[in-house]
Amino acid sequence: MKSQRYVAKVIRSRNHSLGWLLFISHFTVFMTSCTSSTDEAAQFFLRGNVQLQKREYKEAIRFYTEALTKKPDFADAYNNRGLARFRNGDREGALADYTRAIQADPDFATAYLNRAELQLELGEPTGSLADLERISKTYRDSTYYQSRLGDAYTQLNRLAEAKTAYDLALRLDPSNVDALTNRGALYFQQKEFKKAQNDIQKALQLNPKQDAALNNQSLLLAQAGRYAEALSFIDQALLTQPRQPYYQNNKAYFLLKLNRATEVLPLIQESLQLDNQNGWAHRTLGQYYLKMNQPAQAKVEFNKALKLGVPADELTK
């Protein structure tokens, strides 16, 4: 969600036990009535789980693939291989595996949840919402599920429904850091800064290293003109996610406001290298060129920012 700079939302939980679900359960029944091939598949699956928990993702993928060779309709192996592939940086492979898990078992709620969350990260909220709605009866009392539902509604600009989902997530668990961070981001977008501040402060009390909350706190401070304090918070966010392009752009913007323009160019160049479709980063680069008395280059960047949706009245703020 991009506001004056960039308000970070937590798209993928790193800590919730329900997020990016590893499926390990229903094999007690499965293994009591095995053929030799399904028994071997189950053994490879369990080995894969061990490697996944050890964060040996390539080995986990290898074992899950062996399990699928023995039992090609093994939905649980597809789901867990998808998780291993995601954690190994292969998002498209993960998406394909979650889909195969669902094809093998159309009632596999865990795979729907994993696919829904991945689609959010890939910027496909319509598909994500469809998956979340498919499993609403199973997970409707889950704070984690309600957080993801709020994220899907936010990406679809259905903001009233997003707030309702975040509110429910927090009623179910007031310590849900993701929901606090994301509702705070929603309040920021709607210029309800006091409510945003309240949620972000609570999120940081619960998890002082939550990078999205640290970023959002920096933007709240910047909105109040407190750029030196904002810089301190964005630096903390970058310690956790040093190559997050939006955080890099926000730091560059704060440095410009603090008249430290000579430090800006490497940050903004890396930010745009990682994501050249962020209009606010082009806006920041345009402002940098103005500071350097290079109006022609500034105009080029401002035009790019306009094409990417930055309002004209925000270009030189």
Automatic annotation (TrEMBL):
This protein's UniProt keywords: Repeat, TPR repeat
PROSITE patterns: PROKAR_LIPOPROTEIN (PS51257), TPR (PS50005), TPR_REGION (PS50293)
Any one GO CC term of the record: cell outer membrane
TPR repeats: 41-74, 75-108, 143-176, 177-210
A single BP term in Gene Ontology: receptor-mediated virion attachment to host cell
Domain of life: Bacteria
SMART domains assigned: TPR
Protein name per UniProt: Tetratricopeptide repeat protein
Organism: Spirosoma profusum
